[in-house]
Amino acid sequence: MAACFVEGPMAVVVQNTKRTDLELVDALGAFGVATIHEAQGRTGLLAAHLRPIYRPVRVAGNALTCEVAPGDNWSIHVAVEQARPGDILIVSPTSPCEDGYFGELLATSLVAHGVRGLVIDAGVRDVAELTAMGFPVWSKAVNAQGTVKETPANVQTPIVCAGAYIRPGDVVIADDDGVVVVRREDAEKVRAASQSREDNEAEKRQRLASGELGLDMYAMREQLEQRGLRYVDGSGE
Amino acid sequence: MAACFVEGPMAVVVQNTKRTDLELVDALGAFGVATIHEAQGRTGLLAAHLRPIYRPVRVAGNALTCEVAPGDNWSIHVAVEQARPGDILIVSPTSPCEDGYFGELLATSLVAHGVRGLVIDAGVRDVAELTAMGFPVWSKAVNAQGTVKETPANVQTPIVCAGAYIRPGDVVIADDDGVVVVRREDAEKVRAASQSREDNEAEKRQRLASGELGLDMYAMREQLEQRGLRYVDGSGE
Amino acid sequence: MAACFVEGPMAVVVQNTKRTDLELVDALGAFGVATIHEAQGRTGLLAAHLRPIYRPVRVAGNALTCEVAPGDNWSIHVAVEQARPGDILIVSPTSPCEDGYFGELLATSLVAHGVRGLVIDAGVRDVAELTAMGFPVWSKAVNAQGTVKETPANVQTPIVCAGAYIRPGDVVIADDDGVVVVRREDAEKVRAASQSREDNEAEKRQRLASGELGLDMYAMREQLEQRGLRYVDGSGE
Amino acid sequence: MAACFVEGPMAVVVQNTKRTDLELVDALGAFGVATIHEAQGRTGLLAAHLRPIYRPVRVAGNALTCEVAPGDNWSIHVAVEQARPGDILIVSPTSPCEDGYFGELLATSLVAHGVRGLVIDAGVRDVAELTAMGFPVWSKAVNAQGTVKETPANVQTPIVCAGAYIRPGDVVIADDDGVVVVRREDAEKVRAASQSREDNEAEKRQRLASGELGLDMYAMREQLEQRGLRYVDGSGE
Amino acid sequence: MAACFVEGPMAVVVQNTKRTDLELVDALGAFGVATIHEAQGRTGLLAAHLRPIYRPVRVAGNALTCEVAPGDNWSIHVAVEQARPGDILIVSPTSPCEDGYFGELLATSLVAHGVRGLVIDAGVRDVAELTAMGFPVWSKAVNAQGTVKETPANVQTPIVCAGAYIRPGDVVIADDDGVVVVRREDAEKVRAASQSREDNEAEKRQRLASGELGLDMYAMREQLEQRGLRYVDGSGE
Amino acid sequence: MAACFVEGPMAVVVQNTKRTDLELVDALGAFGVATIHEAQGRTGLLAAHLRPIYRPVRVAGNALTCEVAPGDNWSIHVAVEQARPGDILIVSPTSPCEDGYFGELLATSLVAHGVRGLVIDAGVRDVAELTAMGFPVWSKAVNAQGTVKETPANVQTPIVCAGAYIRPGDVVIADDDGVVVVRREDAEKVRAASQSREDNEAEKRQRLASGELGLDMYAMREQLEQRGLRYVDGSGE
Fold this sequence. Notes:
The structure is a homohexamer.
Chain A: E1 11-15, H1 22-29, H2 33-39, E2 51-52, E3 58-68, H3 74-82, E4 87-93, H4 104-112, E5 118-124, H5 127-133, E6 137-142, E7 159-161, E8 164-166, E9 171-175, E10 178-182, H6 187-209, H7 214-217, H8 221-226, E11 229-233
Parallel strand pairs in A: 3-4, 4-5, 5-6
Antiparallel strand pairs in A: 2-6, 3-9, 7-8, 9-10
Helix pairs in contact in A: 1-6, 2-6
């Protein structure tokens, strides 16, 4: 989409991108990240170095994607204008950087436009204020280091953030365990699979709580023996 | 289905291993990790990258050791059957891996068998639920990434976990500062040395709180001079 | 493409994917990674933790993409069958892992099918033998740790490798500086832009070698003054 | 017992160094680290790997500088004698080390002499006790590993701590975002600039909260266009 | 063996420990690290952060084990006296440290006593001189930082080095791929298994070089299908 | 010197700074980094993550200091004008960044002005060309990632680079072991101390090569016993 073959920095903002219906987004947000990640075949997880600035926390929203140049947060200001209620801002630097790209003022602006949180593969600051505001953030670092505004970067284009490929309008769910992305076209199926998974877990939980062994509940003993597991006695040592 | 064509891994479960008496375990658990580590000559500490998922926290128990293949938590299910009340599960991957090997269901199962906590040189997930349950965990990472069940690994054999050598039935104590292991045969002596150390600290604490200098309390001035420490005046700079 | 919403691991192999013409691939391979990266607007670079196992080295080829489970190299065997002369194998684990997924035997097999090299966001082994063979490898680690063959993963699907999004048949160029991907549809334009860039550099190199300052050659002095650069004398200090 | 045979380390303690007036120190402490860092032209920040052991927290004080040998905390005892009310102890190892140099007893001693907190580019222990005491600490690691007392190092000399150059009596401010140093001779001006910055932010916050865009408030649109930002429509995709 | 429960540092040197016969050591040294690691069931590998200071290189020897305090290399001098021809010195710090514990003078001394190389989970210096001497070293870092001689540590006791448990007289083999330890009592069996593995690989290599696919040679196709691998056509994309 | 308390980036270039006499610089360059570091009391070392792009290599020169903004190499162009024959360019980013700030063209320009090498706490590119030119570089990373030219930074001011405080005209020596800085006012004394140290080592080397033990040569046995070292027999195990 961007004319990516020319020399020098050039950036695009893609407007009016499709989003996932918020009812569906919220339904996915009712499940935890681990459940959704399992329900879609263990895909879609962002790297585990992204951590929430406070706990417990859980949020779901439409991805509002935003690249930033290293040490430069200009395009975040551009992204705010593209925000719609129910979005989560997803920020990825074009080369690794842990500066504090984001703080209380930008959060105030995002809240005014209905944005539910921030996922950033870089640093944030004002974490005391962000925590007091209840604005959820997942970041690679906490860092007071400020940034300049000299180089714009892409907004609402597909990006790679913390190792995951994310397109505008994909659903992002984040909680204490991390961050996962669900493709817009898979959202309905992943909701169903997550619900089915959760229903299934309730029964398992009860049986395990009563002392039943996973070895028996999952009928693992024969397979383990075939795979070479052997039992020996250690009482004499 | 078996891993047929390679000379492969084989795994053992050692049953009926000896444990340290729980009264002694609990006595050690009354001391902090730093005290015990000092009391046994600054040995036995696990690497500092193991961090508790919530604070404050302290627990002590008999080591229930468990290896896991990378990205594979099958042997944790095997380990549950070997658990006895008062154990702490100690999990070490056979090659470094930060996947989320452990979550709420396994914790529910361990609690049902009297296990007091988990120390894992890898990742965990469901940390909101584990925190709500009050199930103590020390891990290298928090990570929603799931694991498979294809390759069994050793249970209740001596292992290296986070740089420390741990045998089944050794005593493991963990708190906000980290994790330490006490050899079963040393447990009684380490209890005494820890008590003596703690008694000694109470008096020191009082003297320091009253303003006495460590330089005087420990009689360090002469030694420092011998080692070449010199005092100069900086008031003119 | 893969039914990514169902529970459990499932993998696909996409056959007969399009490739970039080898003449064009080789033309790109005549430029270094830094030149190509600049020529396409500073995009497409893989993370700098990928390093060549020997230097100097340069190679270009069509991306033959391959995911692997953590600690499991089964799908690399699957990928070999999909190889075509002029390919470079691009391997990315589904969760971070530094095991030694690849060694001399797999390299021998790839060479027999015309594959020109390997880019892997994980570990390799047999590096002495690979170096002696002249088989180029860029990896995250060198590690003798072996892998199992239990869990297949996707071959020839779009993947994220070391932070870059790569599709089968995109062009990958790698040298001492790192690894860059060029989208198949941009390859022709990037070739032209790279050539233009290189022509331009020859003249710059000559002027700089003769002592001309970049400040003058690029006419930077006025801009620097506008940006607040000031000169002061330090001879008196 | 002396370090006899090597050309060895020698250490100095600089006494009676100047300090910044505490009224000024406290005035700076009213601002957050991010504000002060911006107010002095984005300088003075310590590396972001220094993290507080509890949150929220904020403190300001005069730097009481102290080097330590790797695995050796002897000079911290020396530093206590040099402490004055309103100081913050700044500790930097002479080569990287993450041992637990500092715990509850040293904190008790420092509190008795009016020291307000600790910044250490190494590890600390007894974090549960330090948290309960309300003694603020910023460190690189939490680590129960103890240290010896064999090698003195410099106290109250200029040091590099976490990448920042700090002299005795410079002002150090630390909060949830990190740690910043203000040179003693700049403290008055930085106070004024911080106040001006904070006044300015109050109005911005209000406008952003009402929904005004940063693009308009900061008049960025023309500059962004000049820098090559382009808007495209994505509704058809 | 050491009275590890007493307060304060105390160290032991275990003399006259058993060694593995050098003929057997040399036989193992004829195989690469990856082969031996596989032949003993993928165990015994030291962490991959240990890298050789020059390549190519391969060596095998009896482990001469040595702990060191952080920033203190005194016990290496103690270890030299315990050296026997055919030993490899294995050094592990009691807490993590990357100082340059070892250089040309110590290497000169070790060579004079028949020691074949060094494996150290810390830093080394004089790497130009060590390379010129042809003295093989595997280390965690190259670092000119010197060390003191104040705190002795254990020599010829079992240690954990880079995550592996090593006893005096175990066999250590190291090459470009890393470092592996073979238990003294397993050495004969591992030699046989390694030979068998190598014999087997020669035939595989030839078949793969001729273009035979691993999928066929290892008869993997049916298993892959059972595990859910599916082939789809991508020619229309 | 810079008005560091005002808002916004402002940068200075300090001209006509003093340098160390090149004869003295070259005399220091005759010693290795480890020797010089020891000779000045184990101070002045830059962090060990700085590694040479080729080996073996050794160079010494006057520090030509240069800060750079993250992802922005503009001030390197400014620094070239300040270069004098015998300088080494020392580059430090104002916040951590591993982009490829420097390549063949800048090296060509520096060589034309007599600069002897580069030390950069960030990334470089064109390492094949730099190696072929024989231009020595010590860097934190090799990275093809390009930089912009938007934000000037200080040139020839005192800086912190890789944890060391360096002023213009201080002497920097770099070799395979790393990088060390000698203060201009200490250069003469450090030369003498280094020579004395090297003379002393020649005799030690000879004695150690003949088999004499360090324990005897340094008369360590009594001290070791006093520090608690004990010898035990392990032949019966």
